[in-house]
Amino acid sequence: MKAVILAAGKGTRTKLAIPKPLIKIAGSSLLERTILTFTSLGIREIVIVVGYEAEKVKNHLKNKEFTQNCQITWVENLQFYRGNGVSILCAEDYLKERFLLSMVDHIYEAKLFLGLLSCQGDLVCVVDSRPRFADPKDATRVLIKDGRIKGIGKGLAPYNALDCGLFLCSRKIFPVLRETVEEGKEEWDDAKKRFAKRFSAKVFDICGGFWLDVDTHQDIAKARRLLKKRE
Fold first, then answer.
1. What's the whole-model pTM score?
2. What is the dihedral of CA 216, 217, 220, 224, to 10 degrees?
């Protein structure tokens, strides 16, 4: 199985002068942490979609010893300023089977996902029904009923879980993704919502496990503080 990391965005909300994937949290960049999450799950083939300051992001991994244990394919999204659904489409030609998908700005404990790879379904969303660390005000919310997604989106009400930013997908998601992007709905959330309504989207609940979404300067400070205690 391959994994896809979306690392193309500029990350303007962090208010830092470096690409978002290169922000260091407790000694490791967000990109390094995401790669290590996947390699901890036994994933050895990783597709990384870059865009903003692509060469700087690529060079960041040069001579990193841990990358010798995996095969990295770089894909460049020249339209990185558009929604992240466009970045996923850039990776389509490199994916033949089911694959994992993650945003680069999420921090996880890999052990939470040991059962994820055996889940069945064309779209399995990792969710947290008992969030202890992420801020519900800024996260993507999910409404779950009978183990399936009935609603998803920012500001959704009512909701009973948060979207953790990690997904198990089949290639069946690409026609829906192209459809929403062509309509001007370019975010991954738009495609997920339509896929769940048209077909079905299952959930993998980590039930209060450790994860964080790093979007702002305040999120960075929080992540550094929490990881310092845990590592």
1. 0.95
2. -160
